[in-house]
Amino acid sequence: MQNLFPELRCFAEHQLAVSDGHTLHLTESGNLDGIPVVIIHGGPGGGQLSDYRRFFDPEHFRIIQWDQRGCGQSTPHCGLENNTTQHQLDDMEAIRKHLGVDKWMLFGGSWGSTLALLYGQSYPEQTLGFILRGVFLAREQDMNWLYEDGANRIFPDHWQKFIEPVGGRTGFNLVDGYYELLTGNNELKAMQAAKAWAAWEGLCATLKPSPKTIAGMMDPKVALPLATISAHYMHNRCFIEENAVLDNIEKIAHLPAIIVHGRYDMICTLENAQVLFDLWPEAELDVVREAGHSTFELGIIDALLKAVRTMARKLGKEDHHA
């Protein structure tokens, strides 16, 4: 098993005003002359972590991070107005231009993989390649797995607690019920709903129970934007056409991709990754035998570090991390 690179400070921070009253928090770390890579966090509404940059050799990569609309240090906090998938893709392009990047590699997990794929399909000329973890294709069946019939069969005890705040509703009725609570005027009920939503995701995220993961997700500063923005996106079917990613795969089929997916991922099933891999001639798929969905399970860490090293070679830079 490989270890993450040491903690890394950023060499620059930016506040980028984008459209419709939103301001994005950006950071850069690593080598200004290295391979540009943009880290796309999950959620929606998950926010960036400094540990994400530790997958990259700071000598070889220019590491770009940003908090998506409404979360992390971007403002307005929990802002749902003018917060759609197309706005996020426009933001990514605004960031690229603001930082003077010609082309960049896309590194995204979960919802971050969805945005990476959609961005690449919109801007293939600006995309060097992809490293994707815990792929989420944002089809109705993928949302139903987590909110109606799928994960509930694996975690029936946790599921009962998850559906309690919305009176036992399931599927998009469950999502709509949470959306009403999270966007309502009762702050106490909104926070209770946010913690229940975050607890469900945290309990499903790892193969082995991880109190640290669950505690981190249930921190009010994390749980409220995560739940509110996630419910907003799921309520609106992620603001994309059904099967949008797979229907447009030919636009990125020529680009290199490494897909890392835990075999026992209970948030985004392995089928997401398999069907994507089957349609993508230049993709590699690494199924991690003893892992679920979380970025920081040991097998996922190992596979992602290998993927970064492989991609560095493909893009003309050696990565000497052992």
Oligomer type: single chain
In helices, the fraction of residues equals: 40-55%
- The CATH level-2 architecture of the largest domain is identified as 3-Layer(aba) Sandwich
**Spans where pLDDT lies below 50 across 5 or more residues:** none
What would your notes on this structure say?
The chain contains twelve helices and eight strands. With 322 residues, it is of the alpha/beta class. It folds into two domains: 203 residues, Alpha/Beta hydrolase fold, catalytic domain (Rossmann fold, 3-Layer(aba) Sandwich), CATH 3.40.50.1820; 98 residues, no CATH class. It has an eight-stranded mixed sheet with strand order 1-2-4-3-5-6-7-8, with helices on both faces. Helix 1 crosses helix 2. The longest helix is centred in the middle third of the chain and has 18 residues. It is globular and about 55 Å long.
Which features does this protein show?
12 helices, alpha/beta, globular, Rossmann fold, 322 residues, 16% strand
List strands and helices in order, with pairings.
Elements: E1 10-17, E2 23-30, E3 35-40, E4 61-66, H1 85-98, E5 104-109, H2 111-122, E6 127-133, H3 140-147, H4 151-154, H5 156-163, H6 171-182, H7 187-204, H8 211-218, H9 220-235, H10 244-247, E7 257-262, H11 270-278, E8 283-288, H12 298-314
Parallel strand pairs: 3-4, 3-5, 5-6, 6-7, 7-8
Antiparallel strand pairs: 1-2, 2-4
Helix pairs in contact: 1-2, 3-6, 5-7, 6-9, 7-8, 7-9
